[in-house]
Structures are given as C-alpha cells and as structure tokens.
Write a structure and sequence with these properties.
With 70 residues, this protein is of the alpha+beta class. Helices cover 37% and strands 17% of the residues.
Length: 70
C-alpha cells in the first residue's frame, strides 16, 4: 500500500478503437504487460494501473490527473 508521500508510477491504458470487445480487450491486456515490464525494467516505484475501457478519454484519466496534483 502506498501512502500519500510515496511516489507512484502511473501506468495508463486505453481501449483501442480497433479492439471493441465486451471483456477486457487484448489491446488493454497487451498494454498492461508492456507497461508493467517497462516499469519493472526501469525500477519505477509502486506501479498503479489506470484503465479506460472506451476509446474516448474516461474516468481513469480524470483520477490519474487528480492524483497527480495531490
């Protein structure tokens, strides 16, 4: 668990317009895998995923922006 003074690494994923599935898309699964590997390889602390499952900007982006300025 992170506390307010610990750094987080924001990993943001968004549905591709080309990948319109009912469940979590392959696009998002692939993005998560790539981002997690990159964060791990570069020793980024406390990775946290923010995922929007629509091709437009959504609620996870709003949370990400809000948390960035807290």
């Amino acid at each position: 668990m992170t506390t307010s003074n610990q750094k987080k690494t924001a990993l943001y994923c968004r549905l591709s317009q080309d990948d319109n599935t009912e469940n979590e898309s392959n696009s998002i699964q692939n993005q998560k895998m790539i981002l997690q590997r990159y964060a791990s390889d570069h020793h980024f602390p406390n990775p946290c995923f923010y995922v929007d499952d629509s091709a437009i900007l959504g609620p996870s982006q709003k949370v990400l922006i809000k948390e960035a300025f807290i």
